[in-house]
Amino acid sequence: MAEFHSKIKTIEWVDNYSKMVDQTLLPERFEYVNIKTGQEMFDAIKTMIVRGAPAIGVAGAHGVVLYAQELEKENLNRDEFVKKLLQKADYIATSRPTAVNLMWAVKKQKEVITNSKSDIKGIVQELKQNGIKLENEDIEINKKIGDYGAQVVPKGATILTHCNAGALATVGYGTALGVVRSAFANDPTIKVFADETRPRQQGARITTLELTMDGIPTTLITDGMCSYFMKKGMINMVVVGADRIAANGDAANKIGTYTVAIAAKYHNVPFYVAAPLSTIDTSISSGEDIVIEERSREEVTHINGKIICAPDVNIINPGFDVTPHELITGIITEKGILRPDYKKSIAEVKA
Ligand code: MRU
Questions:
Q1: Are 119 and 178 within one domain?
Q2: How buried is 59 (Cβ within 10 angstroms: 0-12 exposed, 13-18 middle, 19+ buried)?
Q3: Chain centroid to CA 209: how far?
Q4: Catalytic residue positions?
Q5: How many Cα atoms occupy the beta-carbon half-sphere of 164 within 13 Å?
Q6: Nearest C-alpha to atom 6 of ligand 1 is from which residue?
Q7: What would the pLDDT profile of 138-197 be if each residue is shown by its tens digit?
Q8: How many A from CA of 64 to the centre of ligand 1?
Q9: Does the residue 6 lie in any domain?
Q10: Within 10 Å of residue 98's Cβ, how many Cβ atoms?
Q11: Is any ligand 1 atom within 6 A of the Cβ of residue 199?
């Protein structure tokens, strides 16, 4: 079967709009949606039409271009244009709170705006070029992450992953699934166990789809099963993505990742986090400072529109948890694999 990751771009700038895979429809339907205004982009990020830290970073960058195109039509003078655009950029950055790639990419666009010497038309062009550059760089970075990560995948390994840190969480290729793809290219005996990842089931709906389309043997398990299979010796390593990594190596990822990391430590299974350097936020010293998104009760009370619990039951629904750095064997980046002491290795690589 044709390779999924080389066929699609999760998000792509086309002429004067952003085209993205609508991830809320997967796996039943594979459809693109064209996002033509800044507010549409804000809503697409918030409602998770586009999701996954690197993908929403690029979405944020495209959102700034969309707002710039709208403001260009308002006959503002340059100073007013810049002031309003910077406000819109800050607004886009609030569409989701945990994945720092969003704030990082919007900041990159804000730098383009403030450093530009061009007129309004020129600023819009520069923002467009930078959005496309961030888009293309993402795939290159993921391939480097994949190649570094493949070096630590044991021959014939079964790799457990949680959530979706694949082509669909990035522009293409993926971070954690980039490691799987690069390892599989060298060793076709590699297998994957994918956690379902409640409540939104990104593992079931998205990870199993993109891996099986690439012909990579994949077994879907529910979230509570990981320690059972680790005890049986059926999982040789864990690789997950990240939404934000603090200066000490604490890593936020989809809720349930922390549980997997504890189980991995107990069973002596190596636990790796794969992420671009843009996911490392050195402005925060530890995971304590990572804002955890609270999501709707319906994500927990319902599956596919059907209620699965007593209607009045209490619900708490944090979207992410933080895996403490002492549970992480290595952080796989485009500049190599960072090892403990993370305070030191992160400071060196981010210098
Ligand atoms: O809520 P989501 O689906 O955006 O969360 C995604 C994850 O937690 C991913 O594992 C993470 O963003 C890494 S993606 C390369």
A1: no
A2: buried
A3: 17
A4: 243
A5: 33
A6: 52
A7: 999 999 999 999 999 999 999 999 999 999 999 999 999 999 999 999 999 999 999 999
A8: 22
A9: no
A10: 20
A11: no
* pLDDT above 90 (res 6): no
Same domain, yes or no: 216 and 245: yes
CA 102 to chain centre: 10
Residue 327 CA to residue 249 CA, distance in Å, equals 10
Do 126 and 152 lie in one domain? The reply is no
56 and 99 Cβ atoms separated by less than 8 Å: yes
51 CA closest ligand 1 atom index: 4
Cα(242) to ligand 1 centroid in Å equals: 7
- The residue to mutate among 102, 202, 277, 293, having the most atoms of ligand 1 within 8 angstroms of its beta carbon, is 202
What CA–CA distances, in Å, run from 337 to 10, 152, 201, 332?
A: 26, 9, 29, 4
Note whether 132 and 148 are same-domain residues: no
Place of tokens 């480097």: 144
Tell me, yes or no, whether 21 and 111 share the same domain: yes
Average pLDDT, stretch 264-288? 98
Residue 4 maps to a domain? no
Task: Output the CA 228–ligand 1 centroid distance in Å.
Answer: 24
Residue 1, in any domain of the structure: no
Q: Give 296-308 pLDDT, tens digit per residue.
A: 999 999 999 999 9
Q: Give the residue, by CA position, lying nearest to ligand 1 atom 15.
A: 165
Q: Looking at the domain assignment, is residue 99 inside a domain?
A: yes
Cβ-count burial 264-278 (b if 16+ within 10 Å, e if not)? bbeeebbbbbbbbbb
Each residue's pLDDT tens digit, 211-258: 999 999 999 999 999 999 999 999 999 999 999 999 999 999 999 999
User: 254 has which bridge partners?
Assistant: 320
The CA 129 to ligand 1 mean position distance, Å, reads 26
Q: What length does the chain have? A: 351
Ligand 1 pocket, residue 172 CB under 6 Å: no
Q: Which residue has the tokens 């970075």?
A: 141
Q: What is the mean pLDDT of residues 28-57?
A: 98
Task: Domain of residue 135: give its range.
Answer: 11-142
**216 with 334, same domain?**
yes
Which of 179, 243, 277 gets mutated to test ligand 1 (max ligand atoms within 8 A of its CB)? 243
| Ligand 1 pocket, residue 254 CB under 6 Å | yes
Mean pLDDT, to the nearest integer, of 50-65? 98
